[in-house]
Amino acid sequence: MKIKICGIKDVSTALAIVEYGADAIGLVFADSKRKIDMESAIEIVKELPDFVMKVGVFVNETKEEMERIASCIGLTHLQLHGDETPEFCQTFAMPIIKALSIKHKNDLEKIKQYPCESILLDGPKGRYRGGNGEAFDWNLLQSEDLQSKQFILAGGLHEENVQEAIQRINPYMVDVSSGVETEGKKDLNKIKSFIEKVKITALEEK
Known about the structure:
By secondary structure, the protein is α/β, with parallel strands linked by helices. Helix content is 30%, strand content 21%. The strands form two sheets. An eight-stranded parallel beta barrel has the order 1-2-3-4-5-6-7-8. Helix 1 runs parallel beside helix 2 and helix 5 (162-169) packs parallel to helix 6 (188-205). The mean pLDDT is 92.
């Protein structure tokens, strides 16, 4: 079970979450209270081990700008939270994670349309396209929805509900942002507890 902590904005937090056992960090370049500047992102990625996924989060950005940012910073994946089409996602050479906001059952039909290896299932859209801290109804997911893709579960996850999420859905990765924050800032104690809960639950599920 892989773990991604999204919305990282400084080197010390990034290094701490890797030490705790996170597999991926998310750097937000879209309109968000967690948006990061290029200089800070470069400093973070420079300090991270090679095995850590460095995911850039974008919303309706141009292909040219995303590729420029990815090259300058050293991103390994692009996570797209906007209205990007399946055809657009196919134009990239690097791995794409397509995020889908789930509110109704028919939102899951989009899974089949995208060629991306990884699909992120997020909560309903709020002020921002991600990081709103709201879970979708996990009962909407059926086993047939979860075939042939690497699913990343996001939206409203925190230490108290991630065990149930893993047991019910068994995703490839869990992704958390607001669920490990206190007063809008990343809380290292919450991050550590979240990661420990995920790892314990994953072992129990084997």
